[in-house]
User: Fold this.
Amino acid sequence: MNNSYIYTDSVSPCSEEYIFPFIEKFIENYKLTSKNPLTILDIGCGNGSILSNLQNKGFELYGIDGSESGIKIAKQSFPEINFFVGDITTNISDILPIKEFDLIICTEVIEHIYSPRDLVKNCYHFLKPGGKLIITTPYHGYLKNLILAITGKMDQHFTVLWDGGHIKFWSKKTLSKLLQESGFNKLQFKGLGRFIYLYKTMLFIASKPTNYYQ
Assistant:
């Protein structure tokens, strides 16, 4: 993510309206399988809005982002959550106080990253064996791209005029391939927002194998 991305408030992005309900439902079910409070890391947390919705539920919450303005707002707005500034595509072991998490969330981040393999590598590294990654990114597929072309909205959708905007455009196939080559398995796909094959966003749940050893 662009380290100079500027946040001005703690307001949730509009995409959170159709992303968070699914995440919340998954986490509520996932915590039933754990004897201890879940440790959750939001990697690319921005202004902390996703984690703020998980407060007071008995979780240990951590967020990291490269945007100093985002983390400053997150710390001021949600002081009970642990937030850190760090480049999420580099070694962040010295920044985070714990080294293994039950669950990592990464929402609408990977499309902003020049080196997505490094981001996913960090997600894999900081998960406990058997831990889960929830990752989302805008959906792109044949039918959606075709409709954009037919309706003359390609320039609007793939705009190059958005400073700090999207630089990678993922499909179900390409994101699946990245997750699998990074070591994740048991991939689960969910389309979110709008209609089938015209989704606004796609969500993957991916697992770190339980037989993984550092």
